[in-house]
């Protein structure tokens, strides 16, 4: 079956976006993994499937490169806002989000962060503002759900954390029944430097929900004030949040090219 797609990215976090609003497209885990494969497929961190929605302008389904369907993706939300244009409501598994495209990107209300242990979710009750756990010198992370689960470690220099090695160990720790996205952050001059090991995708050039989670954690611990700029390997996002409120994320989004793939031939 031939299928048109858009290749897009948000700060280098890249997506294959398939618009299935007018023609339904059953998506399996194996198919999503095959499209995302950088050698045998198109290649991306996440496959994004757009479908009709009963509650919003569009439904956005998100599949990690490992094929698993997940609840939220900040960078893809900005890309979809750019693709559709104007002010739109986007239904996701993690909530319905309001987004507006701007000249070179988009601004999105990512909703209210959740802090209770069972909302992260964790395997058992703990103080999520400072989890009494550690992995090889990475200690007392902040846990928050911003549509998807994150933990945030504040370290002297985020560049010195070997996320490629420790990221998958933490992601798959039994403490996190849904697995977890792992953020390593450092603060300098009021800005956040962030690197992210993404659940189901590995190290990416940027993670929008990671930036939201880290900004919430930094503001909650009085390490930064809102709005805060978050510098990721692929570029910067601005995150605004006040306790009790919703998170606003603003930043770039890019349409790279349009293409066509034979989905059946990939399997
Ligand atoms: N790249 C994303 C997050 C994608 C989903 C994440 N890997 C998960 O499994 O929750 C972003 O920009 O937020």
What would the keywords be for this entry?
267 residues, alpha+beta, Diaminopimelate Epimerase, Chain A, domain 1, 2 domains, 17-stranded mixed sheet, two-stranded antiparallel ribbon, 5 helices, 17% helix, binds the ligand N[C@@H](CCC[C@H](N)C(=O)O)C(=O)O
Secondary structure class reads alpha+beta
Number of strands: 19
Q: Could you name the ranges where pLDDT drops below 50 across 5 or more consecutive residues?
A: none
Bound ligands = the ligand N[C@@H](CCC[C@H](N)C(=O)O)C(=O)O
Reconstruct the topology from this structure.
Layout (H helix, E strand, L loop, with lengths): L1 E9 L2 E7 L9 H8 L9 E6 L6 E7 L4 E2 L3 H11 L2 E6 L2 E7 L3 E5 L24 E2 L2 E2 L2 E4 L3 E6 L8 H9 L9 E8 L2 E8 L3 E2 L4 H13 L7 E5 L2 E6 L7 E5 L1 E9 H4 L1
Parallel strand pairs: 2-3, 4-6, 12-13, 14-16
Antiparallel strand pairs: 1-2, 1-19, 3-4, 4-5, 6-7, 7-8, 8-18, 9-10, 11-12, 13-14, 14-15, 16-17, 17-18
This protein binds the ligand N[C@@H](CCC[C@H](N)C(=O)O)C(=O)O.
